[in-house]
Amino acid sequence: MFKEIRILESDESAAVEAAKMFEEYANYFVENLGQFNVALAGGGTPKQMHQHLSKYNLDWAKIHILFSDERYVPPTASNSNFFLAYDSLLKNIDIPNQNIHPIQSLGISAQESAFLYEKTIARLNKNLELDAIFLGIGPDGHTASIFPNSQVINSDYYIEAIHDSPKLPKTRISFTLKLLNNARNIVFLASGESKAKAVEDILKKDLALPANLVRPPDGNLFWLLDKHAAKYL
Ligand code: 6PG
């Protein structure tokens, strides 16, 4: 595994760096494999990255958008990760609808949705090896919807339904470490002082928090931080 930490001056410059990495990966995988299969991070941090990405001239017809986790709320809810990505990126780019793969969060159980999403990913890559996965971290060191001391940490599945998330809503569908560590490229994006302690615990103290268990053995691992999130490094 290749690992690199990049510390940027501001949340804005960190977001631009993440958007540029997306662009580089997209151009590389489209050119070499004919398609780019990428999962977006949930939460609020990716908004700036997505807004920059909206302005890039990418071959969106060959890019497939997935989601590293989803809150079990309707896709029109303001806290839906799909809605957050739609509002900051998807509505602003010329991408075919069939290239957007939301995690179903309505009309079926979270367990059924997890099962179906694994099949969705397998249709894009039979080995469930995604080209790039973008992730955020919470102040407690969680990533996607994998929280400290969660049973999901040792899951042998690629996608899991979570019913006890300490971060509301309680019910979510999430990539597992098995899927994350199967990726070709992982990019964490963390900004702001609220993430500084988690970043220190992970990148300096090497504590076994969920985000620190993301170590794709055959992949590349990047941490993009602004100087506030990196203040204790
Ligand atoms: C979620 C996210 C979660 C998020 C972190 C950071 O659905 O909540 O996937 O892992 O990335 O909690 O969230 P913020 O970017 O909003 O700080």
Structure description:
29% of the residues lie in helices and 19% in strands. The chain is α/β, with parallel strands linked by helices. It has a single domain, classed as Rossmann fold, CATH 3.40.50. A 6-stranded parallel sheet has the order 1-9-8-5-2-3, with helices on one face. 47% of the residues are buried. The mean pLDDT is 98.
Average pLDDT works out at 98
Which regions contain 5 or more consecutive residues with pLDDT less than 50? none
Strands across the major sheet, in which order?
A: 1-9-8-5-2-3
Q: How much of the residues is beta strand, in percent?
A: 15-25%
Number of helices: 6
Topology (elements, then pairings):
Elements: E1 2-8, H1 11-33, E2 36-40, H2 46-53, E3 63-67, E4 69-71, H3 81-88, H4 110-124, E5 132-135, E6 159-162, E7 172-175, H5 177-180, E8 185-190, H6 196-204, E9 220-226
Helix pairs in contact: 1-2
The structure holds 6-phosphogluconic acid.
6-phosphogluconic acid (6PG) binds next to strand 4.
Structure summary:
The protein is 29% helix and 19% strand. It has 233 residues and is an alpha/beta fold. The chain has a single domain (2-170, 194-209, 222-226), classed as Rossmann fold (3-Layer(aba) Sandwich).
Task: List key phrases describing it.
about 230 residues, Rossmann fold, 6-stranded parallel sheet, 9 strands, about 20% strand
